[in-house]
Task: structure prediction
Amino acid sequence: MASTINWNNLDKLESFKKLLSLKNSVSVAKELQGENGAVRVSKYSVPMGGGLTYNYAAKQVNEQLLSVFQQIADEDQLLEKFRALYNGEVVNLGEKRMVLHQLTRGQLGEAVNADGTDKRDFYETQRKNIAAFADKVHSGKILNEKGEKYTTVCQIGIGGSDLGPRAIYLALENWAKAKGTFMMDAHFISNVDPDDAASVLASIDLSKTIFVLVSKSGTTLETLTNQSFVNEYLKNAGLDPSKHMIAVTSETSPLAKSPDYLAAFFMDDYIGGRYSSTSAVGGAILSLAFGPKAFEDFLKGAAEEDKLSVEKDVTKNAALLDALIGVYERNVQEYPSTAVLPYSQALSRFPAHLQQLDMESNGKSVNRFGEKIDYVTGPVIFGEPGTNGQHSFYQLLHQGTNIIPLQFIAYKNNQTGKDVVIQGSTSQAKLGANVAAQIVAFACGKSDSNPNKFFAGERPSSLIYGDSVTPESIGALLAHFENKVMFQGFLWNVNSFDQEGVQLGKTLAKSVLAGETSGALKAYADLLIK
Amino acid sequence: MASTINWNNLDKLESFKKLLSLKNSVSVAKELQGENGAVRVSKYSVPMGGGLTYNYAAKQVNEQLLSVFQQIADEDQLLEKFRALYNGEVVNLGEKRMVLHQLTRGQLGEAVNADGTDKRDFYETQRKNIAAFADKVHSGKILNEKGEKYTTVCQIGIGGSDLGPRAIYLALENWAKAKGTFMMDAHFISNVDPDDAASVLASIDLSKTIFVLVSKSGTTLETLTNQSFVNEYLKNAGLDPSKHMIAVTSETSPLAKSPDYLAAFFMDDYIGGRYSSTSAVGGAILSLAFGPKAFEDFLKGAAEEDKLSVEKDVTKNAALLDALIGVYERNVQEYPSTAVLPYSQALSRFPAHLQQLDMESNGKSVNRFGEKIDYVTGPVIFGEPGTNGQHSFYQLLHQGTNIIPLQFIAYKNNQTGKDVVIQGSTSQAKLGANVAAQIVAFACGKSDSNPNKFFAGERPSSLIYGDSVTPESIGALLAHFENKVMFQGFLWNVNSFDQEGVQLGKTLAKSVLAGETSGALKAYADLLIK
Result:
């Protein structure tokens, strides 16, 4: 199988050379003019999973570009590469690992066997074990030392063990409260700054809290440090840490065999941290917070989106199309960053998750074979919820000297069902009106004799929209970006699944703590450490 | 006075032409090598206000560049421009307004009179009125309908009425709790997404809450909408809104004369939203949350930093030097974005405040006279606290294809006083060790025969450090960036104090809500509004 795939650098593709010749070939402002604009909005639309839709009418594309995108997808064998990945080929070459996060939510291809087991069975078994554990906690079959129910869950993890699960928890908190499926309050401790743990611990009832210790290797310094911090608090409160902590780790980690946990659930080396929200890493805290059914629905939404991501036609595969548009914007239009703008307070931390997902996956300068590449890769990703951002950094997006592509995310309905009519419209309608207005303002601009009030327009955006933020829709949204980032990694020919760039800092920090430093490093350490 | 200042575009300066010739003239890796590196760390250091220090040893500068920076500062009359600003010249040309936020915390120059009053007196009077009000609330001289003390304060505002005050509140929450000066819990409602208000209101005891309605004009749609939302909740709870809301607004706004408020405090048109944290906009909520003394100390730190910002020698004026280095990085080195990396969980939202401050101030394409400019202006600003970011987007910072300048912020001590020793070091020491390690890793890189583990280095950073996050130090930190952004605005010759780029979206949103749309705008609105 593997031998039929050519892993080529982007600039070696004939079709990419065509794409380069199409720089600045589309005026979004013109395309969206008049009634043709409305036709374009309805046409440039791709169904996603979880009831979402990807709309790219305000992107700098036309039929010619779409046709070149298709040629690139075909020439670069993007779908074959995806198939190889989900069928268990070792695509994480640097670390010599398979990449199986899609398998945590469905089976797209053949059975994948590793470590003496069918991996889909393994992930499903973990999910079911978590569900059974959560049910027992919720029903009171598992109780604290005093025979009371646990009310609170607190994740101890950092990076992918924090950002994704936290973003999803916040996305669903109000949904669950409104639906009546809210089970337990969730909190998160991540930073090695001791004030992070101290302030979280001061705000919760320790005696009714289950901590979820998440570390694949069982060796993450921040996480182990925070575990000790928490254990000390538990002991000082006269509580038994083994009654208050579960572990999510790999079966080979030191944590796996420890008697210090109420329970342990497993992931493995084929799930990267930033791709782990649909594994036990997200599963434990989300199942405890919202019940196992909500977590299952979340996986269902992700699986739906995965299935759509195997489609060969670029106009029917939102993740693939989004990836190709992104590469056009990065490598042809030369835009260095992208803003993610969810018009939903529930998604307040979703941009931070995407920031890790995208920048850690594709912020690379060598290809998958370790050869230096001659084009730019991953952009800077940043964002904040709208309408808040409109009163903040949008000034630069509208009138700054660089064009920054935009990803809007919006919903027809809010989660709480509460709303108010002011000046003839609900708040939710105002939110939607602002999204529509911003897309058109960015794309079409406005001429004005006062140059301060002149808007050049031609600032491309796409829109992902749906009915509301639910487990299914947030699952699909998550999977969309995971798959987009994967396709972009294929296009740039980088390994999207390692992160060697984080190692040097770790090594140097260790030598500082060991007192083995000199020169500038010692001088900096002396400024900062008592 | 004004006539002696030349407002020139950056590319018209002779000294800037020199700067252009110094592209890539400094290797940070070389400069930081060996024991000379330690000397450089101790030398390239500028005292700031509030006990902070600005260290630029890991920036791409040397004596030659510093000398050109000085020439630019002199030729472009940066200090004269600052003097004109604080002495009340109308530097916000577009809106024909003075710019007086420094006057909310001290008197740098001459008395400034406007609206029939001395403006320093006006701001001080507001601060004292707020202090007196807060003291009455804290002492129980002002009570709720049932004769109970208020326990909670909730800001209703957006943009500058939200981001700055929220960032400062979060920065000082644990400090105040540890110090015993914590008075009232604070919450914030900003987004027009109704779930924002609904979830905040569901989490607080309305009967004991004072809402702070903040809108300079009294016409901000999001804020007025959220006010109505809150009023409805108050009425439904049998509470009298006028016993639960104070206003912070301008004296000429419709809110100023309303009997609907427990009290009203004033700012004016000379304080831009993103520069308003030291005015009544930050004053009301911070004085209620932490007591008037903490707010006074916060102003003291800002005033200290302002005083240092009038220094002509670029090596003694941290804000000025930071501004010049930033312009070198943006316009000579051509770096399109900057990351802000506070190693303190307390500063979790400080990057979001700086994002507004910087991007809204200097994200402009025309100069202060409305003429199109031929160079790039404000960069994209983004950031998250460390060490969290290390496990997220730092991969791209270390090994991505673009260089992104970095701003580290770190403290020797944490706020809560809680800590734990693991593997021979405290968490706080680990935090400091990581900062030192990251600075050196970014600057010096590491050669490796495995290209995956190769770090090119030459990624410049500066470090602001101090003893701990206190009212004084956070005040100085805030003022540093305000003044840096101001100096950069002078250099780019833009008006840093207006935000015309936010208007078009507002106008289009209004026409959507009025149903006065067609074409693409209507098509988008139809997708998003029920």
